[in-house]
Design brief:
Layout: E1 4-6, H1 16-22, E2 31-33, H2 41-47, H3 52-60, H4 71-82, E3 93-95, E4 102-106, H5 116-134, E5 138-143, H6 148-156, E6 162-169, H7 175-182, E7 189-195, H8 201-213, H9 215-220, E8 223-224, H10 231-248, E9 256-261, H11 266-277, E10 281-288, H12 293-300, E11 302-304, H13 323-331, H14 336-349, E12 351-353, H15 356-362, E13 366-370, H16 373-387, H17 393-404, H18 406-409, E14 414-418, H19 426-433, H20 445-450, E15 458-461, H21 465-480
Parallel strand pairs: 4-14, 5-6, 5-8, 6-7, 7-15, 9-10, 9-14, 10-13
Antiparallel strand pairs: 1-2, 3-4, 11-12
Helix pairs in contact: 3-4, 3-10, 4-5, 5-6, 5-10, 6-7, 10-11, 11-13, 16-17, 16-19
Length: about 475
């Protein structure tokens, strides 16, 4: 049976179910599989024409032992997870006219119109499956810089096995994103707007880490997370790399490039692992905005925390890309002592300079660049006016960085990831297009509906967040979950 271990080396190996429900490993590290599967060209050939759901079944089966979830159970969870998506193909690709062999992967046809739906639809239903079977209950806590929160809230809403505590930095996400959380009427959804977050979502992650470290509290309220620290998110996100590849290549083995807007390295961690598993990707392009946390790592070998910049691509306004530690583990021969030492140094000093051999190893197959808001807005306008196609600010970052790196990429086909629907960013779209009224392609029925609904939720000042959260979560637990859940 495939086991999962902490990338920091602490604790014992655990099975898939434990890794998923725990979120963080016991030593505070991130769960990783003991071994990554090697996918042959013959397997890729056999998968080329599969639907997204069938492809997901094949890839996930590489990580999930049949004694944990049977084939029929896994197929049922996958079907349930994606039956509410707007497009039958789940993830369509749009070919640009203005650039040679360039495709936009539209990852925003789930219920909350962002790519976070793809991982969270499956992960939340996986949680629910395990908890129903065990007749148990969990409190899930996540921090969001715009899209994780709405997706988490949507998929947990109404579940009898889960409570969701969704933290967001007040004023640093759009009103549209906020309303996707605060207009849900379900009693098991608790949105928390946090004011005065000088480091944005990182301030919230810091508090969540403290709550996890309080073992008595964690055990009392049955704390877990579906943030991208959870292996289930990264595992599920490997699927769309394979799926996108199959949609554009003429023959298996053909190398392509993929450009991904990123801040926390969760999506790109999945891409890096897919590449290590055998997906023929020439370059994974790390598209950073002005915050450039990943560009520093991949161009200078420095993992450092700098002051945050608020940008129009707010979902990637992230300072600390935690999932890089997960990917790095597989680049240093799974030497958990190195990961532990580097993490501890970063936590103590706020900066790590990697040794030359480690730097050279982890940057293989990656290119990176950071761009300004002016460049982001400019390409939204260019593509809309030339092709009548509307990019969101994050897809715009991906395409701009790919354009900047064209000379290094070569002639291979290129997929740029568009990770959210433009309707989530109306002011940026108006600014980019120079209009007062949004075009229809910048609207979505779910966003329009949320504008007309009442909002509910908590608000808190960041400096009091830990104590305030513990009090609110304790009160909620005692009020609603002090006895065994009744299924």
């Amino acid at each position: 049976m495939l086991k999962f271990v902490s990338n920091r080396g602490g604790g014992k190996p655990v099975d898939f179910e434990t890794a998923i429900l725990d979120g963080f490993a016991a030593d505070g590290g991130l769960y990783v599989p003991e071994e990554l599967p090697n996918i042959s060209k013959e397997q890729l050939e056999a998968w080329k024409h599969l639907t997204y759901q069938d492809l997901a079944f094949e890839i996930l089966s590489l990580f999930i032992d049949r004694s944990i979830i049977t084939a029929d159970e896994l197929k049922s969870i996958i079907t349930k997870s994606y039956n509410s998506f707007e497009k039958e193909e789940i993830i369509p690709l749009h070919r640009l006219k203005s650039r040679k062999e360039t495709y936009i992967m539209e990852l925003f046809y789930g219920p909350t119109i962002s790519f976070k739906d793809i991982g969270l639809a499956f992960l939340v239903n996986l949680f629910d499956f395990f908890l129903q079977r065990k007749k148990e209950f969990l409190s899930v806590i996540v921090a969001t810089t715009g899209d994780t929160g709405p997706a988490t809230a949507h998929f947990i809403a109404g579940k009898t096995t889960l409570d969701a505590w969704v933290l967001y930095p007040k004023g640093l996400i759009t009103e549209e994103q906020e309303r996707q959380m605060t207009t849900l009427p379900h009693s098991n959804i608790h949105s928390v707007g946090v004011s005065n977050c000088p480091e944005g979502g990182d301030d919230l992650d810091f508090v969540i880490a403290k709550l996890y470290a309080d073992k008595n509290f964690k055990e009392k309220v049955k704390l877990s997370s579906v943030n991208s620290i959870n292996w289930g998110r990264v595992m599920m996100q490997t699927v769309h790399y394979f799926y996108g590849y199959f949609q554009v290549v003429d023959e298996i083995g053909e190398a392509i490039n993929m450009a991904v807007p990123s801040g926390g390295f969760g999506n790109l961690c999945a891409g890096g692992l897919a590449k290590k598993m055998g997906l023929p990707v020439k370059n994974l392009i790390i598209a950073n905005n002005k915050n450039a946390c990943l560009h520093r790592i991949f161009s200078q070998g420095i993992f450092s925390k700098e002051p945050i910049h608020e940008t129009v691509s707010s979902a990637i306004d992230i300072l600390t890309p935690f999932n890089f530690w997960r990917y790095l583990y597989f680049c240093v021969d799974k030497d958990s002592s190195k990961i532990k030492r580097w993490v501890e140094k970063f936590e103590e000093t706020g900066s790590v300079q990697f040794d030359k051999s480690s730097f050279e190893e982890y940057k293989k197959g990656f290119l990176s660049q950071s761009i300004s808001d002016i460049e982001t807005i400019s390409i939204i306008k260019e593509i809309y006016e030339s092709e009548n196609y509307l990019l969101d600010p994050h897809g715009a970052v991906a395409l701009t960085v790919a354009d900047d790196l064209r000379n290094e990429l070569g002639e291979e086909k290129l997929i740029c990831f568009a990770t959210a629907h433009p309707a989530k960013f109306p002011e940026t779209i108006k600014n980019a297009l120079g209009v007062n009224e949004l075009p229809e392609s910048a609207k979505h029925h779910s966003i329009e509906k949320a504008k007309k609904q009442c909002q509910r939720g908590y608000s808190c000042e960041q400096s009091y967040l830990k104590e305030a959260l513990m009090d609110a979560m304790n009160n909620n637990w005692e009020l609603n979950h002090s006895t065994e859940i009744n299924n």
